[in-house]
Please model this.
Amino acid sequence: MTTSAPIGQPIDRVDGRLKVTGGATYAYEYQDGGTPVYGVIVGATIAKGRIVDIDTSAAESSPGVLMVMTHRNAPAQPTFGPRWVQNRFARARPVLADDRIRYYDEPVAFVVAETIEAAMEAGRTIAVRYEEERPRIDLGAHLEDAYTPEVINSGAATDTTKGDFDTAFANAAATVDSRYTVAYQHHHALEPHAALALWDGDALTLYTATQTIANTRAAVAATLQIPPENVRVVSSYVGGGFGGKLGVRPETMLAAFAARQLRRPVKATQTRHQVFANVGHRPANVQVVKVAAAADGRLLGLSHDVWTQTTPFEEYAEQTGLSTRSLYDAGALVTRHRMVELDMQGGEPVRAPGEAPGMLAVESAMDELAVTLGMDPIELRIRNEPMLDPMRQVPFSSRNLVACLREGAERFGWADRPTTPGSRRDGRTLIGYGVSAAIRSNYIGACAAHVRIDPDGRAVVRTDMTDIGTGTYTILTQIAAQTLGLPLAAVRVELGDSNFPRSPGSGGSWGAASSGTAVLDACRKLREQMAALVGTNEAQPPVIEAGVVRTGDRSESVADLLARTAPDGLEANGEVAAMTSNPNYRDFSQHAFGAHFAEVGVDMDTGEIRMRRMLGVFAAGKILNPKTARSQMIGGMIWGVGSALHEEAVMDPRFGHAVNGDFAEYHVPVHADIPWIDAHFLDEDDDKGNPLGIKGIGELGICGAGGSIANAVYNASGVRVRSFPITLDKVLIGMTAGT
Amino acid sequence: MRPFTYERAEDVRQAAAAVAARPDAKFIAGGTNLLDLMKLDVERPAHLVDISRLPLTAIEDTPEGGLRIGAQVRNSALAADPRIRRAYPVLSRALLAGASGQLRNKASTGGNLLQRTRCFYFTNAAMACNKRTPGSGCAALEGFNRIHAILGVDRALRERGCICTHPSDMAVAMAALDAEIETVQPDGTTRSIGLDALYTSPDTQADVETVLRPGEMITSIVLPPAAGRQIYRKVRDRASYAFALVSVAAIVEVDAGQIRSARVAMGGVAHRPWRAVEAEQILIGATPDETVFDQAAAAALQNARGFGHNDFKIELARRTLRRTLADAVSV
Model:
């Protein structure tokens, strides 16, 4: 490893040691402002209706209790407002604002006590009487009530149409017309949603777990009706986000309210059970995919219709069909999104919103078409590789899907796949292979950063960007060190504080591009400043590398240079503009691509499905750090396993609660479910998105991953399951009893 | 959570007396189940008697050639014991199929037998549950009952009944092994109860799960010698850390081409580890072949009943039973 060029090197996480030794402080662990008191949320036990009476007398006289807040005594707050706003994460989110119940487990009271146990005990004694209305919960039963949203999440058009799909479908040599369903899935970051709130006069400091500092600041200020500059948000370390920490949740608002009233620091967190209802989820959906193909596999038509859960009070229209518009070259191409209002918590972006559920269906349908045509599913995809973005008719900034499929096929041993379903056995286990494409939009957000070099030659990078476990601290250290010509150890990155320059935060896989480009910009300016300080007359600019400045045959350390010429050190601001002002995002279709390969075993007797192998091959621009990037990819792929085989929050249609709302029964893959997994990156450099040549990778790993597993289950068992997750009961009914 | 007092028991008899003295007292050993349920306000003891440090941690040979297991032997220690692994592999495998390494390090043998059900509606204090609040109804009956019972529920009544399953893997193996539990009463007297007689029917009183009297404490579990090939098969939704949808413990002894003895128990299908007596009767004396296994499996499920989401368990149990029996006689 060359330390002078750390970009692209598998550098260990710079915050790794702090994390494994407990030195990284998370929101709920702060003890600023003296001994905190503890808040506990009490949730509604109905899904729809209003509070008729709430008796808090026992709680108020319970030992150690300092405050019981309900809608009767909660501070004045703005109304929730329209169902859709431009930035859902920055809007006011009133809590305990009125007597209405909009979803099961919505907060009805907040109890603050000297200890968390005292708060829990008092909360238990609160008696609520409701006027209950019959909730609408079952998505399948309310599809006829669907409506058409103005736009879908990401701001894209709700519907798109190209060509004459009906004619294409009628004249096709082979067709697929399949209906798929995807269950409610949850982010469930290991660190629960939490905050410590403390006030100094009119100024609020919030230690909280958030992906985006600026949005949290705005949403808290709007809800508390105070100026944003009076809110400081600190989120130095975040134990996972996945979209769940883009918005501000009730515990944070309530801690801020209670701390203001009590003039004491208040800590609050959601329990694991509460996270099921009070964070949001990937909404359940129904998808119909129709494919029309010529005998040679060319797509004549592809249509993707989606019905997704949303709520009466807020619209979240997941962009489930968005990636279908850029994936395959089809003569006729139709995508449509419809929403169904149900009386439960609303949807939120969950890792790869849109692609993750949408590609489960589309990539299953492509496999069904390959089976119908008797074609290799890789060959089918290659045959439909577009030259231009199929809907937008602009070039791709770079697109290496075919290379990923070919490289993956080679590495995985695809040629050895069982072509006939149910034809390969290992003892009582049926073996199947599956493949799927991966596509994920590439974005960048407006970002600012500040970098200074102290006279001792050490640099400090600051932006309010967050590291939600992805490796932001590490990659920004690499970018700054290489650009400034300093050793890694001479760079310190400070993140997650609203006192720092504004970033777009972590979300949409744009964190590395946005913050990396802003840091690069600041560091380039500093490098020019250093070059000017050298004051050379020679034609060659000075070489700054590993903390040493060389000009011709002269050399001195950066520290010596600064001590001599800039005793106060140097500083610079860097920035990058939003993609709306970057023509490359208009003139090019920007995506990262990949291919997933899965081998599964299906038990002949029980239908149990177990992963055997999984490989992802990705083309996602330059890779800043292969080590942290690999963790991102295999993490996403394991999410794909969960979405294909395990994850489902079951909503009880009578009560509207997540029946299996704990980690014993809401299953995610455990170690034993992932026996062999690997991710490989192809070399790619894309100069259209950002000067680093990178693309977002945080979500790419899950995109399409579950599709390869569903296809492998079919290949193993001969049973096509179109209801996700694919649990053994769904396979069992299609399998004849093993003999 | 509700306030409670705590004492550490000094000896076996004092522990039993301490719990018997207060109707709101409970034993606590590993606490892997009780503490969770206390946080959920499902279990509401006002007093806990900690028996985890009592000298009940030995595994000893019995004069009959079996083993006596102290009630405070940890699940991980029991699974790893060489005598258990050699003579009772079905028990070792069942233990290792349950929970996680961390939980097995804490959970006791006695406590494992007395686990409460994982029914979603039992663990949610806002839901109707005859087990938690007798007479309140059963929200699972017309709710999401995918993990619920198919056997011993033919007379389940909405007003009083319960369709939950017993979550233990270990107890299923012990049922097949004809284990007996030994207890001490508050007055110091002891008794022995066959595992099959430990659990009561939920038909009329779902909140009562065993024949144990107030303060009566399990001190040990006795395993008689076991002859035959032993198998534990657990079917679940993921590879580890999931409760059984269906499990089968089978001990089958074949001699001269005939099944000499067969003991079969099932998990995940009933409110208790379910001894498949009807299957055993068909197997004993029969020639072991697929036809007999089919008949035995069909007999075991003849009174099975589904409640919608768990209908698949009947077929799953039949297939799992048939396959496990076939595996038990194949060498």
In short: Chain B has a mean pLDDT of 96. Residues 137 and 159 of chain B are 5 Å apart (CA to CA). Chain B is about 30% helix and 20% strand. Chain B touches chain A at residues 1-3, 39, 41, 118, 120-121, 123-124, 126-127, 142-144, 146-147, 235-243, 245-246, 290, 312, 315-316, 319-320, 322-323 (CB under 8 Å).
